[in-house]
Amino acid sequence: MNPTFSADVQAFQKEFATFLRELVPADWAGAGTLPREEYDAFAEKIRGQLYERGYIGVSWPQEYGGRGLSAEYQVAIAEELTRQGLPQGIASDVFGIQMFGSTLLAFGTEEQKQRFLPRILSGEDKWCQGYSEPQSGSDLASASTTAVLEDGMWRINGQKIWTSTAHLADWIFVLVRTDPDAAKHRGLTLLACPMDQPGIEVRQIQQISGEADFNEVFFTDAMTPEENTIGSVSDGWRVATALLEHERGGAAAVLAIRFAEELDRLEELARERGRHHEQDIRRRIAWCRSRVFAMRLMGYRALTRTLSGEGIGPEGAMNKLFWSEYHRVLTELSMDILGEDVLTLRGRRPAIPDGPDAPGAPTDSAGWITTFLNARSSTIFAGTSQVQRNLLAEKILGMPREPRAESSRGR
Amino acid sequence: MNPTFSADVQAFQKEFATFLRELVPADWAGAGTLPREEYDAFAEKIRGQLYERGYIGVSWPQEYGGRGLSAEYQVAIAEELTRQGLPQGIASDVFGIQMFGSTLLAFGTEEQKQRFLPRILSGEDKWCQGYSEPQSGSDLASASTTAVLEDGMWRINGQKIWTSTAHLADWIFVLVRTDPDAAKHRGLTLLACPMDQPGIEVRQIQQISGEADFNEVFFTDAMTPEENTIGSVSDGWRVATALLEHERGGAAAVLAIRFAEELDRLEELARERGRHHEQDIRRRIAWCRSRVFAMRLMGYRALTRTLSGEGIGPEGAMNKLFWSEYHRVLTELSMDILGEDVLTLRGRRPAIPDGPDAPGAPTDSAGWITTFLNARSSTIFAGTSQVQRNLLAEKILGMPREPRAESSRGR
Amino acid sequence: MQFSFSREQEDLRSSLRDFLSRRSGSEARNRVLKSGYALDRGLWDSMAQQLGLLGLALPESVGGSEAGFLETSIVLEELGRDAYAGPYFSTVAASWVLQHAGEDGATTLEQLASGSRIFTLAIADEGGTWARPGHRTTAFEVADGHRLAGLKVNVTDADTADEFVVVADLPDGPAWFRVAADAPGVSVVMGESLDLTRPIGQLVLQDAPAILVVGPAAAGEILADVNDKAAVALSAEMVGGADAALRQAVAWSLERTQFGRPIGSFQAIKHMSADALVEVETARVLTQYAAWAIDERTPDRSVVASMAKQAASDAFSLAAGNNIQIHGGIGFTWEHSAHLYFRKAKATSALFGTAPQHRDRIADLLAV
Amino acid sequence: MQFSFSREQEDLRSSLRDFLSRRSGSEARNRVLKSGYALDRGLWDSMAQQLGLLGLALPESVGGSEAGFLETSIVLEELGRDAYAGPYFSTVAASWVLQHAGEDGATTLEQLASGSRIFTLAIADEGGTWARPGHRTTAFEVADGHRLAGLKVNVTDADTADEFVVVADLPDGPAWFRVAADAPGVSVVMGESLDLTRPIGQLVLQDAPAILVVGPAAAGEILADVNDKAAVALSAEMVGGADAALRQAVAWSLERTQFGRPIGSFQAIKHMSADALVEVETARVLTQYAAWAIDERTPDRSVVASMAKQAASDAFSLAAGNNIQIHGGIGFTWEHSAHLYFRKAKATSALFGTAPQHRDRIADLLAV
Q1: Where are the coiled-coil regions (chains A, B) (predicted)?
Q2: Has residue A409 got a pLDDT over 60?
């Protein structure tokens, strides 16, 4: 038991900290002080500077643009970025680096890795994820977007939804039904598909906060070459599920750092309003502190497993459930501290639509209210809390699945 | 809208109050001040005095020993009894008067009513309820205790469990399977069966608090005459379900009165310990007050429906869920007020094993701790909270039943 | 013992529900979502003139129907169910003060009952609440009446109001005044309201001409009364909204299938809905009783008003939150009305005292 | 970065778990339920001598193995899982003070490590807590040592203890003393303990002879240290208990069928269990970290001790409550061990600070 960074990582972090300090002015108060409109460009700029110095994807193998360092370095980088008030990458990195990249490392061909991975790190290619469909949300395996192979090209037809950053993306990894006769889970394939083609139309979806961070993606005879099949044909369910675990697992240690910073800002809000002496507020903050610290420790535990070559497995579902339900409680607390001031949105809106806002964000009511509204989406996206609880009960506790209305669905 | 007693009822209540004051000494502080061992005898004595003056079962028709008054009078009596620190009857009255009596009024033959009802009111016959079985708790319809009709006598074999007051009872109303070939819900019959016979053995069950308020009842060729069939043969499910609604519905208005008195005692506890100035304690007490008042109003609403001849229907399930879940919260609050003093049980134990203790009970830790432990049984008995939620969702909100693992169970 | 509405009251409810489903409903909600808040004046006039909703509890002499607060609460519940976007609450709340103006006020009340003039209350100063407005808005007497100076915050429907009913301090204590929106020295600064159906603004008074409605002798008692009534009125609105959110969720759960069955057959969804039902019914009975208590001026009316407000706030938040969760992705798109209710739940909870504030008040009133 | 136990630590856990399943386990729990608490002296001796559990963190010179607090926390977790009925926590907690006795204490520690003498802490005066004992027990010097007078409450395992480690006030401040159970002027009044596996009593001291262990100069710091350690030790016990309750519920849910299916296939039961799992894991990681922090004497050890205690209290209460609910009727019979865990959850939460008290402490320490 030694839940601290190794000496090497500490040295690396120190060096990285020095580098970061040169990127921003001495009186830098955090990216959260930027207006929402300027944030994305700033994040992109910083990411470019990090990339140039080799700080993007450090845990990836050197042959694909990484530095072959352990996952510990990745957490150290994220921690230092937040500490210095800087963005942890750009929005599409979740899909490009954490999800698609990690999956490609596990399932991709050598050719695919060579072709895609370096461009993901450099930011030349931005990725998005095409999983959910209007009729297939929690029940992902019932996806009905089809792909048919013709002369070495997949022809894709159907619709995906809730596709974050699709309007900015160069590529989509899309779960399609390639064998309409196989049982539900068995006829699926994962494809990489370029976005810039006439067969693809993207429509933005305005969400609860009034902003548009999601999209619908319509495929009408969209094409992608056969070599863009990720994993085997009809093995898409396995590949996609592994990918979802990357989505869930990787975030824990890093997310906790952002949540801790957010909680600092909440305390500031309570102090500004003289509510920090109230028993109820104090106890709830103490509970939140414990929760965020536990989140970080769960991240460390997952990291330890990763470092020793074990997978984090279904515990990924716990992290997702943990942080999204925590964030509902935290944002409720922020509303209670605001009191009457929840009535109107004043000041800056958050730059980040899911989870905590950027570090250094002000305590404006518009920020907290928007985060409160958006927190409602976190318990739905990437598997609802209900689906996560099922997963935990089945995969960790060994409880039986529910009897199926239909045990498999021939299509 | 006029949620007050009518002038007639108020006059009746006043007269009743005068009568009650003669039963107890001038400095009477409530039955809760009696030691647990003396409580039952006291309750029995008071009940006898009430019966003599015609205050038991006032809402039953005169031909069966009642006074043909409206249900409003019943609530007025209960309110006054609690106000004056007196028991609301004896433990078996729930089964004899509220459940079996009400059911008999609805489903019994004239002969049965004449025979059973007056003796229930007089207290000559005490009743208990034989529904649950070891393998059939929430799934009541799967009961496997059998009865076979032979020469005008039912021969009963099997086992019932969680039978409150069975060790004191003269009669049991028991749900038995009379048609082993019919589908699960269709082969059941409700029988009235005398307890004092060699075919019946009662074993007490010690519960969480260390006391024994429940029993197992073993039937080994127990006999009851054919004329003790309640409702029709094979119609037991319908009769039993209606009976459960009596169990659930009737209690609401009356229970709220007891809960309000309990909350007075909780406030006293908080004051004694100087905890009543704490924000958290005050808010939780305020929430409890609102909850108890809402319970009383729901009781008034049900009463209004009863008075106008409408049934209370599935809302009965809401009352059960409402008070049992409330009581968990209330008893948790009492534990939080006790703080370190939950470590040991000091002083008097409660006289009443389910719900609030008798009026005037002291604020001893043994009382609150025991009630806290027993409160765990209230969310299980007479339909778990999970079953109640299913019922509410299905019967009131019209949501679908779950697909059955087996849609019916031939036996 | 009668804990139910009368036949006439049920008729009022059903005719209003019919009216709203024809004239307002999902179409109006979509309009709010698409193009923002804009008062439907035709609907307003119909509500006032055809249905007599604005004069419901006012004297016949000013064109009212002399019904009680209970009837008003039925109207508010139905408007809440509909997520109606208009200044009904604000105007009715203003009438609770204007009724005390005596003979002078008759014309004003006539205007109010006919819907021709829209009113709202302006009570809280910056840092103040509705129960304790603060003493930062002052009034002084001039030859032809009074002048007011100060800033009022969290004024509901400030942009559509023709006239404000304002608490301001005279030398001998707070009093109530009327201020016309188009008078010199009056300006309104609208905020971005969390509740898309209820605009919120600040009222800036720079020596604005005002007419005294109630002097310091009675103003305090009326303020207390307004707080009780507003708590119950908003509770009624929230009970309607909570019920609508619950029903919307259930309807969707019957329609939407996942894993080959309607999601409404999953216990997780059923139990969430059952729990919401319990909270809605709790809030409903408390609100019903509190409305009756206000009509009867029973001694417990303040405490039950607070009980209703805290219960309705919790019920609406739960039901509206569940509604989003049960809808899944579609539930937090802008174009779906689920978030309209969710926003209303949080915002309405904050008007005239939050749930924790009301629990504190219950404890105070019951001398815990 | 290593957030996991070492191979040796895992070995300690599994050998202890094996041992307990052979020597203690459900049979011992049934004994407690059938005939009440009675210390199993043979088991105690084996724990001390065969497994070396009592000297685990003590110096080799007194027969210990010089392991850390982390190892102790592993033992406590396993004992908690087993609902072990014996004075392990009390005795180990006493050793945290006795270790500071210097040379004089060596014999005492040897007795403690060998299991031949049982110890416990007596800290709180009436109306006091473990963190602030009060100043109602006094010590005065006599020719051959000291005498103590006062009443100590909520003393764990007071009936089996051979010796008490007591906080009492000298003229220049609180100090720690040893008092033998069989000394004149010492009497014990046992209460009826909510936790059937941990007797609770009062220690009455009437000019009882006592030996000074730590004087006023260091006593305060040691008291703070004892409070941190006790919080984490009890957290470890509760994590074990919570995990056991969770697993017991799950096992039953697989076995018990209703409506033709195992009740563990119903979402209501699955989701309750999943929620309990999350709480147990939250408490587990916080307790693990806190135990490490105590070994390392990190600056955050007090705050993380409180974090662990409040999380473990909540997790145990939830898991043990769910366990009863999932078991249904059988779950609240006396003979089923479900209530043993439920009682332990509530009682252990109350020892050395309740969850709300620890949350207050977290806020204080973090200067919220």
Answers
A1: none
A2: no
